[in-house]
Amino acid sequence: MDASVVRERAADLPREPGVYQFLDGDTVLYVGKAVDLRDRVPSYADPRSARVSRMVDRADALDFAVTDTETQALLLEANLIKRLNPRFNVRLKDDKSYPLVQITDHPVPRIEATRDPDEAATVFGPFTDKGRVDTVIKAIRETYGLRGCSDHKYQGRERPCLDYEMGLCSAPCTGEIDEASYREDVASAVRFFEGETGALADPLRREMEAAARAREFERAANLRDRLDAVEAFHGEGEDAVSDRSDERAVDVLGAAVEGDSAVVARLHSERGQLVDRSRHSLDAPDAEDRVAEVLSAFLVQYYAERELPDAILLSERPADDDVLAWLEAEGVAVRVPGAGREAKLVDLALKNARSGPTRRDELSALADVLGIDRPERIEGFDVSHAQGKQVVGSDVCFVGGSAEKADYRRKKLTDRNDDYANMRELVKWRAERAVDGRDDRPDPDLLLIDGGDGQLGAARDALAEVGWDVPTVALAKEEELVITADGVHRWEDDAPHLHLLQRVRDEAHRFAVQYHQTLRDDVSTVLDEVPGVGPETRRRLLRRFGSVENVRAAGEGDLLDVPGVGEKTARALKARL
């Protein structure tokens, strides 16, 4: 879209607040907001940055929606960015991937780490260190005996389970503790997660000291390590965030940008004490003032659907004055402290943003070496079968370098001993669903095929036939060679981008084998239920006929040709199948 087209389209826009979208076909490239749509959009005829210039060049259409107020435009923009995931916006990724701790809404609640909490549960987090969360939950259970079993397993028990014998549960299921006493223990656990570190640290410390006095030094050392994890769980929770008595809830935000990714660390306080911390990843395309733009995007996208705190402390002033005006209208105090306790807390947030586990390097490195856009979303494909029988395919998904299991899919394929044809069928199935709009998942940025040049060729043929344009590579086992359209590549063994592809490949393989084994076991179960058919006869039947369906279709005479199958067994097979 050239400058004259932008001006021509803008001239038809209303002079009202709203949001606008630059489109490439049906794909949304960029979402923006405006106080006056007709006044704002013409600025794209003279792009202010290389990123915006690339976006406008690629766009072929412009769409808009009018709102009643500027605030509605601001919030609609945030929701559209999160829903549509436009490539050229600063985008807050889904923070549900961080572990949470939930205490369920049940007369006898259970405690567990989860990434998908129950709607009615009491939830704490998100936290960034899954190992520390697991350590703390185990310490909670050993100290207060909270159950970790599902409600289904809890119901109808006649005797305590192994967790009771191991000291991890007080067994309310069988009345070893009454419900009122159990709920008191739950309340103690809740106090810990709300910021009262001593609710768990104090009993652990007493137990550690008792073990040391009894010269149980190994146990004392284990308790010491657990105590360290517990005391570090809430971070620097002894420092007050704010001494302003009218600010009960305060968030501290620090942002760090590296390459085309950013991290915003959030520290949260209630009544002057830090009770939570979390880290959030964002895509951050090139911008003039990157940290300021990242903070602007984070503020509106994060808080549009959450309760606002009384105050927000920031490492830098946001780039968008409309965001500040919205927060001020909502009664939120926004400060960029220069000194004192608040400045130290902002420094702590910055330290959190600049450290800890991220996938920025491997994704950026993979993009660079393949010459593609940053592959935030990767899907991996593999096929599994037994000599052409029970052929299945897997389609796993990684987002931001981590497995997104809710987006895994699997497919029963045509039985045949042809890996190339099987891969072609699997990838064609995925491509057709995407092109027809029958797949509810976003399109991936990269497809990874488990196999060599033949499997990659089959996959690319399927994509070309359907007309689905997605970068595709293959990773061959043993020598770990990466095959692309340009040739075969051998990357360094310690290359982070190779490790990423290996994780995707190995997970696709695991998921395919698991499905194949499930089908194979189902087959075995059906045959094993037939009187007179043992493991050896079952193997002979499957070796002779290939599948249960073929055994079912065989005549009695054909069955009698199988060693170990007599007339009685043959009749039983025909009757059962």
From TrEMBL:
SMART domains named in the record: GIYc (SM00465), HhH1 (SM00278)
Signal sequence extent: none
GO MF entries: DNA binding; excinuclease ABC activity
Gene Ontology, cellular component aspect: cytoplasm
Cited InterPro entries: GIY-YIG_endonuc, GIY-YIG_endonuc_sf, GIY-YIG_UvrC_Cho, Hlx-hairpin-Hlx_DNA-bd_motif, RuvA_2-like, UVR_dom, UVR_dom_sf, UvrABC_protein_C
Sequence ranges assigned to domain UVR in this UniProt record: 198-233
Designated name of the protein: UvrABC system protein C
Species: Halobaculum roseum
